[in-house]
Amino acid sequence: MNGIYAALIAAVLVGLNAWLYIANKKTPVPEGCENLRPDCSACGIKECSLRAGFIKEENTDGNR
Fold first, then answer.
1. Interatomic CA distance for residues 38 and 29, integer angstroms
2. For 32, how many CA atoms within 13 A lie in the half-sphere containing its CB?
3. Residue 30 DSSP symbol
4. Which of 34, 35, 37, 48 ranks highest by number of CB atoms within 10 Å?
5. How many other CB atoms sit within 10 Å of the CB of residue 48?
6. What pTM was computed for the model?
C-alpha cells in the first residue's frame, strides 16, 4: 500500500511540474525585460558560464 501512495505522490508532483512548466512558457515577458544582460562586474562566481561569456564579449568590444 505504501508503494501505491508513493507512486501517486510522484505522479502528482510530475504532473504539477509539467503544468507549471507549460504555464511559465505561455507567460509573456514583462515589458522592459526583453533583453536583460547580467551585471557580472560584482559577481564573485568565477565558474559561472554567463560571466565567462560576458567578460569574453566585453574584451572583444575593447571595453576592458
1. 17
2. 0
3. P
4. 48
5. 14
6. 0.51
